[in-house]
Design brief:
Rossmann fold, 21 helices, 16 strands, globular
Length: about 525
Amino acid sequence: MHAADGYARATGKVGVCLATSGPGATNLVTGIANAYLDSIPLVAITGQVRADLIGTDAFQEADVTGITLPIVKHSYLVQSAAEIPQVIHEAFHIASTGRPGPVVIDVPVTAELAELTYRRPDGPHLAGYKPTVEGHVKQVRAAARAILEAERPVLYVGGGVISAGAADELRALAELVQVPVTTTLMGLGAVDEREPLALGMLGMHGTVTANYAVHECDLLIGVGVRFDDRVTGKLSAFAPQAKAIIHIDVDPAEIGKNVEPSIPIVGDARHVLAALLAELEKMERPAGRTAAWLQKLEGWKTEYPLHYEQPADGTVAPQFVIEEIERVTGGDAVIVTDVGQHQMWSTLYFHYRFPRQWISSGGLGTMGFGLPAAIGAKLGRPDKTVIDVSGDGGFQMTMQELATAVNYNVPVVVAILNNGYLGMVRQWQDLFWNKRYSFTCIEVQPDFAMLAEAFGAKGMRVSSSGDVGDALREAIDSGRPTVIDFKVAAEENVFPMVPAGQSITEMIGGKAPRKTGGAKP
């Protein structure tokens, strides 16, 4: 399931997976929930017992449509083979239109074994399913006026921009009216993070500049976002100086769910942003209105850059591994991650340049996502170097998928930031529970390099900063599935960090003025 998810995120196409009845189907539940929370278009086809046995607790019977009801966009229980063509076409349409999401098709074995003559169905014609694409013209005009009146605007951009293919329109809007851009975890790649208007990610582990900008903005323009708790922190303290909040989203259920916007616009991000651009181009735009604001943001970037120290014990700084991945690949690789500290370091120390370059589990935070998703991403984008950044904990949850990578010759590179801990949980125990480490120390783990070799992949081990770049180049050039076990600092923490429930300006770490950025070996 995660491989189909990675394929969909990397390509923008619908991912497909199949599973047998009973445990095969129920094993998809985590992957379906993961795709649902991140709005990923998937079709999951599951086997079911014979139609005449449904409801009798037959061998390997499971109520798949019932089990997955809260975590799918739609589901089908096929009754006969004749239904299959129509159902398949509808499922792909539903999964990929409006707000994307997973669709389950449960197929009894009687329907699987029956014969039919395929005819392409008309349609689909789905009563009641008509996603709003175009934004209301009056709301678009109101948004344009608010943008031109603002002196401290911020574009707050999420995964909806990636899903809608709206990155070009977003960048054109930001340039036209000189509005800085901050992204959510799912929105990384919507803007080139090397550009002056890019502020990086905001929220719990966002940059100081991004969080300060949102706190002090007088207009917040949310595009394809959910106002998620990891972004907003304490809701009552979120964007307190904003005189207006614009919220653009294709899903009307998201409008006002967490934050009440003053200018709500329901519609597809690409179409709404294009309409907004057209309105702004017709209007008189005061020159330099945001110049003082942009200068202030540049000052924060200089005053509060990302920073880390080299480990005193001689191990590798995990942040340095991420920086070397960007340097070695020229910033052109597709980065897939598991979930944990390494995921956050990957958001902060790699500069994302284009949509679908960043692939990670956001809403569900699913450990074990990285390797299978990287396999799917590489199958979808064989022209790109695909690197899975993982932790030693998360990698062990799905490391058996190395067999899949080897069997199908999918040359993904797995970079394990091995600190011997479940690092993010350990960090919370460190900061908030007086270092009472409970069930976070991984005292017994396999030799990951030898494990890779046992699967028929290439295995490597790196314990010196000077060897990081050469190891990455060797792994990429090998053309084989490769695992690199990077021995990194055991108790390094991710900073900045906003404690749960606090304002996004109440950051631990990251706010002390620094003279330089990341430390080099």
